């Protein structure tokens, strides 16, 4: 098979070490984001807390992930800063995995997950920023691959945990019932989407007093071990970049040849920082209104699409086991895994499609596909088979929106704005807020409102995308006019000496 583009291949060969390191860091991110749902009931037993108390752990992780995403841009002033914080954050994730089995109180577990969430948020922002800075106009392909590794980590984590999950109640009490195993399986599946809001759980009496029987500690220790090569890879990159005291004689990877491929705007890094740093009035003076609209619209679209991902992963099980579908617990429990697997497969496929097609085309295809599949799910709302098909297609369509939108917006702003920081923060906010709102609607209006909510916000997202394309047209015309005006002013007079 012929290499698609020699120029892109040569760029990758010059920076393969850094690129693979950032990809591995996102594997660590995916590993951490997906383990909580399947293990939450075993962790409830470990902390001997109620189910309502243990769900605060979800909020703790999601909230501090948002905080980390907002502040992550502060840590990329230099390559040394970026890699040092990536090393620290990936190591923290391994340490959190290792100490979770020692957290016998829900407060301690919430603190551990808050620390992990903060590390995940910093990883999310820095890795995206560094890849955009390295590849700029060619970053779309590499961003698709970066986000593929989130899905890969999210697939590995539940597979590691599954053999160690309790098949029956993990707190033994005197009055056990015959249906305890089925109840536990039902509740675990309903927690498959991280951050899902629990409703109507009182009919499942989960004991908090008794003998704790759980082997989930082994799963966390295995995941801590699996993650250890990631901080090691960051440390090796720091060594070859001569950023460690012991590496002063080693050849530097980012030599002048590789740095010449990035423009001054990308190297300066002046446009990127934390969300609060982006609001510095000194940096915003003289910017046209379209500059701010592009940031706002790009963030709003990702707020919606990442919110749909979180909501669908969190509530598709609840929807499937409720009327009119009344699907079996085991079959419904597969839906979340199918959704994440299709997202991972979609991101892998879009690595190639990003080379063949422009970001606006990919975004149009993805957003229209999301709307169509959700409309079909509404029409065939009684079909078990179509729910599986629709879940798979939805994951494939929505998988590429984040990396494509990030690459597209950064390109529009010529890598001078705060697009990466704003978009990453908006996506994290949407995943937390929209999921909570959908959960409240389901609780008050019934499970069918779940698909209706997702379809409505999908239409809103597509309308915002059309508005983004219009604003982009105005922004580019304004930029062209400004460039012509500057050229006229700087044009030398024909009179010579």
Commentary on this structure:
This protein has 497 residues and is mainly alpha-helical. It has helices spanning 6-14, 16-34, 36-47, 51-54, 56-71, 79-99, 106-135, 139-161, 180-190, 216-227, 229-240, 256-259, 264-268, 281-284, 289-321, 329-356, 359-379, 384-398, 401-412, 419-445, 448-490, and strands at residues 171-172, 211-212. A two-stranded antiparallel sheet has the order 1-2. The longest helix is centred in the C-terminal third of the chain and has 43 residues, at 448-490.
Brief descriptors of the model:
497 residues, mainly alpha, two-stranded antiparallel ribbon
Write a concise synopsis of the structure shown.
Helix content is 73%, strand content 1%. With 497 residues, it is mainly alpha-helical. The radius of gyration is 24 Å and the shape is globular.
């Amino acid at each position: 098979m012929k290499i698609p583009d020699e120029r892109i291949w040569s760029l990758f060969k010059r920076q393969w070490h850094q690129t693979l390191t950032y990809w591995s860091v996102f594997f660590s991110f995916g590993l951490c984001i997906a383990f909580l749902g399947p293990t939450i009931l075993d962790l409830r037993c470990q902390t001997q807390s109620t189910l309502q108390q243990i769900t605060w752990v979800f909020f703790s992780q999601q909230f501090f992930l948002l905080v980390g995403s907002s502040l992550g841009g502060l840590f990329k002033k230099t390559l040394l800063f970026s890699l040092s914080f990536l090393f620290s954050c990936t190591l923290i994730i391994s340490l959190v995995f290792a100490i979770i089995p020692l957290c016998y109180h829900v407060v301690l577990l919430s603190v551990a997950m808050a620390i992990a969430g903060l590390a995940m948020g910093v990883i999310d922002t820095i890795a995206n920023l560094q890849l955009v800075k390295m590849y700029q106009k060619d970053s779309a392909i590499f961003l698709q691959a970066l986000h593929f590794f989130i899905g890969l980590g999210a697939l590995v984590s539940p597979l590691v945990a599954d053999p160690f999950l309790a098949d029956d109640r993990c707190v033994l009490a005197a009055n056990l019932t015959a249906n305890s195993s089925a109840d536990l399986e039902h509740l675990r599946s309903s927690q498959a989407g991280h951050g899902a809001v629990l409703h109507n759980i009182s009919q499942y009496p989960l004991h908090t007093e008794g003998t704790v029987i759980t082997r989930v500690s082994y799963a966390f220790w295995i995941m801590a071990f699996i993650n250890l090569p990631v901080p090691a890879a960051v440390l090796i990159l720091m060594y070859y970049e001569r950023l460690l005291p012991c590496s002063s004689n080693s050849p530097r990877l980012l030599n002048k040849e590789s740095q010449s491929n990035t423009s001054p705007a990308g190297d300066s890094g002046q446009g990127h920082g934390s969300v609060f740093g982006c609001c510095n009035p000194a940096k915003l003076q003289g910017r046209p209104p379209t500059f701010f609209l592009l940031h706002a619209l790009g963030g709003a679209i990702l707020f919606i699409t990442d919110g749909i991902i979180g909501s669908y992963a969190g509530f598709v099980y609840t929807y499937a086991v409720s009327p009119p579908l009344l699907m079996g617990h085991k079959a419904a429990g597969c839906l979340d895994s199918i959704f994440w697997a299709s997202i991972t497969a979609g991101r892998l496929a879009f690595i190639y499609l990003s080379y063949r097609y422009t970001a606006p085309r990919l975004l149009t295809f993805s957003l229209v596909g999301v709307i169509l599949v959700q409309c079909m799910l509404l029409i065939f709302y009684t079909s078990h088979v179509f729910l599986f098909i629709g879940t798979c297609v939805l994951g494939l369509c929505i998988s590429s929106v984040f990396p494509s939108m990030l690459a597209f917006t950064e390109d529009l702003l010529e890598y001078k704005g705060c697009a990466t920081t704003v978009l990453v923060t908006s996506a994290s906010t949407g995943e937390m807020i929209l999921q909570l709102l959908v959960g409240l609607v389901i609780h008050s209006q019934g499970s069918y409102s779940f698909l209706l909510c997702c379809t409505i916000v999908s239409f809103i997202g597509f309308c915002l995308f059309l508005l983004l394309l219009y604003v982009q047209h105005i922004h580019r015309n304004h930029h062209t006019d400004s460039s012509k005006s500057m050229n006229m002013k700087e044009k030398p007079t024909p009179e010579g000496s």
